[in-house]
Structure formats: C-alpha cells, structure tokens
Amino acid sequence: MSPTNKHVVFDVVGTLISYEAFFEAIESRLGDRLRAKHVGPRLFGYAWMEAGEKEYTYMTISGAKYAKFFDIFRSIFYRTLWQAGILEPRKFATDEDREFLLASYRALKTREGLSECFSKLREAGFTVWCLTAGDTERVGGYLAKGGEGFPSENFVSCDTIGVGKPAPETYEYILDKLPKEEREVWFGAAHVWDTAGARQRGFKGA
C-alpha cells in the first residue's frame, strides 16, 4: 500500500519563479550604460543576486541579528556595480534606478507548467509545500499572480524561522510539522546546495 504521508517541498525563487522579468528590467534601464563599461547586463544581475544570497546566508548562519534578504539585496546594489569595475557607482546609477530594478524583482513570474506540475503531484497523493528565503507577501504574491494561490499553512518563509537556508533548522522546521510514520518527503530546488542541505536532514532530493 502506498504511503499517504507524502510531501514535496519546493524552493520558490529561481526554482518555481523565473528571473527573466528582472533581467529584462536591467536591460531596459541600465543595459546601454553597462555595456559602455564592458559589463554584461545579465551578468550584472546574476552577480547582484548571487552576492545578495551569499551575504544573506552568511549573515544568518553567523549568529548575527536576522536580516531579511530583500533588505540585504537593496543594500549591495552600488557595491556590486563597483565590484563590476564601475569606479563611481553613485554617478553611474541612482537610487531611482535601483528602486526600479527592485520593483521588477517584486514582479517576477512563475515558470511555464507550474500549475500542471502541482496538479500532477497532488493527484499522486503529495502535499505540496514551499520553503523560501523571501518574505511571504512578495513570494506568495508571485505564486498568486501566476494563478497558483498557495495554502498559507503549506507556505513557509525563513523570516518566520529566523535563519536562512541551508541552515539545518530551516528543513527541520518543515519536518517537525509532518507525521513521522510512513513518511515520504522530497525537496526540489534549481540549485544543488539547497537540495543538498535538505538531504542532510532526511529529505529525498530532486
């Protein structure tokens, strides 16, 4: 008999949600300026996001006071420009440019086929969960705008836990909500480090 205690937990941004709207905004707002400095717009966007995730993760596991990802992301905009070789980043770009790009990040869209994916999993008896480093309003809004209104009881933000992934506590927080008998739990993410962290706590990885 198949276990009925089946769950799949997804990372959200970058896994279920595409970054394309953000990259398009960088192209439209700063593309020509960046290329004039020999900086690829898409590469700048990737560097900004990766640096933001690194700073957020290191801050949360350092034992320092918890800071939300988006606050850290905003704070390193000019530093990322400087690291890209733009020596006077505050002359190159403005706070208005930064806020325009951050607004685009708040408007990211779901990947094609997401609703079909969730439907197939639920039809197979899985409860679908989300575990995100982003805030509930913003990231939950991505899913809702994509036509996938997500049950609040199955949506978990690291802001609630007070530490970011891949800290063991984040994955354990989900596991503690699930019955232990005949349990089948999967974790899905587009980046290996997240799945690796989940597997260390007892999840199967995808």
Automatic annotation (TrEMBL):
Q: Which domain of life is it from?
A: Eukaryota
Report a single Gene Ontology molecular function. Answer: phosphatase activity
Xref: Pfam families: Hydrolase (PF00702)
**Listed InterPro entries:** HAD-like_sf (IPR036412), HAD-SF_hydro_IA (IPR006439), HAD_sf (IPR023214), PGP-like_dom2 (IPR023198), S-2-haloacid_dehalogenase (IPR051540)
Gene3D superfamilies associated with the record: HAD superfamily/HAD-like (3.40.50.1000), Putative phosphatase, domain 2 (1.10.150.240)
| Keyword terms | Hydrolase
Keyword hit for Hydrolase:
yes
Name of this chain's protein: 2-haloalkanoic acid dehalogenase
